[in-house]
Design brief:
The complex is a heterodimer of chains A (354) and B (483).
Chain A: H1 2-16, E1 20-23, E2 38-41, E3 48-52, E4 57-61, H2 66-75, E5 78-79, H3 93-99, H4 106-109, H5 112-115, E6 116-122, E7 128-132, H6 144-148, E8 157-164, E9 166-167, E10 171-178, H7 181-192, E11 198-204, E12 207-214, H8 216-226, E13 229-230, H9 234-242, H10 247-250, E14 256-260, H11 268-271, E15 278-282, E16 287-291, H12 296-305, E17 309-312, H13 326-339
Parallel strand pairs in A: 1-2
Antiparallel strand pairs in A: 3-4, 4-8, 5-9, 6-7, 6-8, 10-12, 10-13, 11-12, 11-15, 14-16, 14-17, 15-16
Chain B: H1 4-13, E1 19-20, H2 23-26, E2 43-45, H3 50-62, E3 67-70, E4 87-90, E5 97-101, E6 106-109, H4 115-122, E7 127-128, H5 141-147, H6 154-157, H7 160-163, E8 164-170, E9 176-180, H8 191-195, E10 204-211, E11 213-214, E12 218-226, H9 229-241, E13 248-253, H10 254-264, E14 273-281, H11 283-299, E15 304-307, H12 311-322, H13 324-329, E16 334-337, H14 347-361, E17 365-370, E18 375-382, H15 389-406, H16 422-428, H17 431-444, H18 459-470
Parallel strand pairs in B: 2-4, 3-4
Antiparallel strand pairs in B: 1-2, 5-6, 6-10, 7-11, 8-9, 8-10, 12-14, 12-15, 13-14, 13-17, 16-18, 17-18
Chain lengths: 354, 483
């Protein structure tokens, strides 16, 4: 019934060429470019469809709250290993997958796209489609499921998602070290190249924090090897970073940028002093959150010169994402044209021309 | 047939010896690892640089000549089978390791670099490249990307798609695509995922950036014998339910065990089913997990549980598993290797059905699985010299794949569709999904010149094959030569 309504609305919008704004909890409304249109609410498409802990596979409708999924998994000692952010302590599975955002554990466990096994979606013509499946290894056909991850709903409205889940580690311990930015980046990279049970890394305001996850003996052996000061209330520390509740994110006065760089790229504060950034580093050096008042062009150029790209993470009307090369842009437009020929789904949210 | 004038233009683009067109030079390229499908190529080109590849593609595009890309030719689905009137683009000479960055834990390599060569180059830094298909000595990374290759360590370390960070690739009209890279979460759509496993249908890969991992401190393997296949299957789920993710979790049935033991004397007990459970990681973690796994296996009814006493014994336990295919190959003149994936819970049912079908078809089957991720490799034994047996083996294989789809699985876990499983694609996907696959193809290659006729069936062919199933006795792919 609820599917029929969804499909009817998309077909009607397709026929009338009227844009739709796909929305679950709206926790990531700020993300991407502003988009206009009638709201298509997916929060009603809710509920876990199947979950067998022995298979490490969970299937849920797109509007299911992340909190509900995580609670269910926790009852069986399992978790979403990509630690999706829950901004404002909200967020749906569909939103997490469509936005393609992962949390601190991504540095070793993998990104949201690494855990998506299959999706069901309704494309911009109102066609219901299923791709991938519920098994871990599957190479039949193109990987359209993963194509949907991070596509911001511009290729289809996700209705159901199958995910690989993992056991929760038996124990976690977070350690802190006082050190400067360049030293922190070096340490993060060096330690990642050693057989250590690392599951998250962070550097902010002169403090390097690393999380160790695994069997009790393994975590404590690594502690003995690395040293550092154990962090109390570590779960809250990582959750506040993941969900941007930490003061750096919550009370800043300059626009927030998400800078993705090769993990060994030099310290931004030292190599780009003119940007006057405040910074929080994650993912072994690969993700640098900066609060920066410099013009967007300068931020983008700095990221590009260092081998990465910048995403504006504060609300804005356009150009949230780094521009694509003409060859890649042409393929993006061609894919959009096939999945959403009238351009009705989240029009302009990713790039202005589609 | 390609004209002599076209071949002359190809030769003008490349150094001497890089264009093969004499029959005796072409024969080695007539099949990939699935030699039941053969077709002599019209012409083979062996470029050594991205610039040469681009020039070849631009010429083919301008002349509307199809191109089939090929790496080391170890594929098992006839994905690199030559197509009449097409250029066979062999990327084996693009074999340079451009960079190994030990601090960033990445390697930048050309597509013709062998899978194992990456780990060998990284070994001096205590790093390695995780996906390890059984052909890793020979298979190339470009082919791994094309097939999204797996191996025995997928459950813990993922497939190729989880271990590749970036690609340079050329479209059929010679445009360069720079996809992903050393920085995470590239902007735009995840074309890296789309390219991985695309079987050479979208673009030609000319450079791959891969992730390297630190070598685990320790690896240990436990062998468990069962008197019943279903019990072994259930034990697999029990290990995972206990919160352990083994690095490798392999299963062999009676016929496979006997063949392997006779072949390499791995010290396997004679039993109905055998599990090999490898745990790797930090020293203390391995000790903990081994204890858990041993307890779980005993509780699951294993009649024997043995932990490898030293590295030599660990390698010996693995030698039997790794030699399973050639060992089974000694039992019959030919075997046909299938590659379905199923939810693990369906393992006992699927094994029972395969055993029943084995009786129906009158062909023996040895079963070797990547049990941890539900990836089955039933090996159907037959004799191609007995008229009709190849056909029977293919029919049987097709039925196994359809069974995998019925229980919620897939027709291919890691070998790809190629030519071999193109009919079963009609079974797994409905027309709207197949149409979207064609749409994806068209976004990259609107003229459909890259690897035509592979991986995704034409919708009208699905309808024809549907009818063909009724008219039994016709060989699938009658247009293909058989030997």
């Amino acid at each position: 019934m609820i599917y029929d309504t969804l499909i009817d609305r998309i077909r009607a919008a397709h026929d009338a060429r009227e844009p739709l704004v796909i929305r679950g909890h709206g926790s990531k409304d700020f993300y991407g470019n502003a988009t206009a249109g009638a709201v298509l609410d997916t929060a009603g498409l809710s509920g876990i469809v199947s979950y067998d802990p022995r298979e490490l596979v969970l299937v849920a409708r797109a509007g299911t709250a992340l909190a509900e999924i995580e609670a269910t998994l926790a009852e069986h000692g399992q978790m979403l290993a990509f630690e999706p952010p829950q901004f404002d302590v909200r967020g749906t599975l569909g939103g997490a997958v469509a936005a393609g955002l992962s949390g601190p554990r991504r540095v070793t466990a993998g990104a949201v796209r690494d855990f998506v096994l299959g999706v069901e979606l309704v494309d911009g013509t109102g066609q219901r489609l299923r791709f991938g499946g519920r098994v871990i290894k599957n190479v039949a056909g193109y990987d359209v499921s993963r194509l949907m991850v991070g596509a911001l709903g511009t290729l289809g409205v996700l209705t159901e998602i199958a995910l690989k889940v993992l056991p929760r580690p038996a124990e976690e311990l977070s350690l802190q070290f006082e050190c400067g930015e360049a030293d922190a980046i070096l340490k993060m990279n060096q330690w990642a190249g050693q057989p250590l049970p690392l599951s998250a890394t962070s550097w902010h305001a002169g403090l390097l924090t690393v999380r160790l996850s695994g069997a009790h003996a393994a975590v404590h052996a690594a502690h003995a090897r690395l040293g550092g000061e154990p962090l109390a209330h570590a779960d809250e520390f990582w959750a506040r970073l993941r969900d941007h509740r930490a003061a750096f994110f919550a009370t800043r006065h300059k626009p927030l940028w998400r800078i993705a760089l090769p993990s060994t790229a030099p310290a931004l504060m030292a190599c780009r002093p003119e940007l006057e950034v405040e910074e929080w580093i994650e993912w072994g050096g690969g993700l640098r959150w900066i609060a920066c008042g410099a013009p967007p062009e300068r931020v983008r150029n700095a990221a590009h010169q260092l081998g990465g790209h910048a995403t504006r993470f504060s609300p804005g009307s356009s150009e949230a994402f780094a521009p694509l090369s003409p060859a890649l842009a042409a393929i993006h437009r061609a894919l959009k044209q096939r999945f959403d020929p009238q351009g009705i789904l989240n029009r302009g949210r990713m790039y202005p021309d589609f | 047939m390609l004209t002599p004038a076209f071949i002359a233009r190809l030769r003008a683009l490349l150094p001497p010896g890089a264009v093969l067109f004499e029959r005796e030079d072409l024969v080695p390229y007539e099949s990939d690892g699935l030699s039941a499908y053969r077709n002599t190529p019209d012409v083979v080109v062996l470029p050594s640089t991205e610039v040469e590849v681009a020039a070849i593609l631009r010429l083919c595009h301008a002349e509307s000549v199809a191109v089939v890309a090929r790496g080391a030719g170890t594929g098992l689905a006839a994905g690199a089978l030559p197509v009449d009137g097409a250029v066979l683009l062999v990327l084996a000479k693009l074999n340079r390791i451009k960079k190994v960055d030990p601090l960033a834990r990445t390697a930048v390599v050309e597509p013709g670099v062998r899978n194992l060569a990456i780990s060998e180059a990284a070994a001096q830094y205590g790093l390695y490249y995780a996906p390890d298909p059984s052909s890793q000595i020979a298979c190339s990374i470009g082919g791994n990307v094309a097939e999204n290759s797996g191996g025995v360590h997928c459950l813990k370390y993922g497939l190729t798609v989880h271990n590749v960070m970036g690609l340079r690739a050329l479209t059929i009209d010679g445009r360069l695509l720079e996809i992903g890279g050393a920085a995470p979460d590239a902007p735009g759509y995840d074309l890296l995922a789309l390219m991985t496993g695309s079987e050479g249908m979208l673009a030609v890969v000319t450079e791959v950036t891969v992730k390297l991992l630190p070598r685990p401190e320790r690896a240990q393997v436990v062998l468990a014998a069962f008197d019943d296949v279903a019990k072994a299957g259930a034990a697999v789920g029990d290990i995972i339910a206990a919160g352990v993710i083994p690095a490798g979790l392999e299963m062999m049935d009676k016929l496979a065990i006997e063949a392997a033991e006779a072949f390499v004397h791995a010290g396997y007990p004679m039993c109905a089913a055998l599990l090999l459970v490898e745990i790797d990681g930090v020293n203390e973690e391995v000790s903990d997990d081994i204890a858990t796994v041993r307890a779980v296996l005993k509780a699951a009814g294993a009649i024997q549980v043995r932990t490898a006493e030293d590295e030599a014994q660990r390698l010996k336990f693995w030698a039997g598993r790794k030699a399973a295919f050639p060992a089974v190959g000694r039992l019959a003149p030919d075997y046909y290797c299938m590659d379905g994936t199923i939810p693990r819970s369906q393992l006992p049912y699927v094994l029972t059905r395969i055993a029943e079908m084995s009786v129906e078809f009158g062909l023996a089957v040895a079963n070797v699985f990547h049990a941890g991720d539900g990836n089955l490799h039933p090996l159907i034994l037959f004799d191609a010299n007995v008229p009709g047996e190849l056909h029977k083996a293919e029919d049987f294989g097709g039925k196994i794949l359809e069974l995998c789809v019925e229980v919620g699985g897939t027709i291919t876990g890691e070998h790809g569709v190629g030519v071999e499983k193109i009919q079963q694609m009609c079974h797994q996907f409905a027309s709207p999904e197949l149409q979207r696959f064609h749409d994806v193809k068209a976004a990259f290659d609107p003229g459909r010149l890259l690897n035509p006729g592979k991986a995704v069936p034409e919708l009208h062919r699905c309808a024809e094959w549907g009818r063909m199933h009724i008219h039994a006795g016709r060989l699938p792919h009658a247009e293909l030569p058989r030997f």
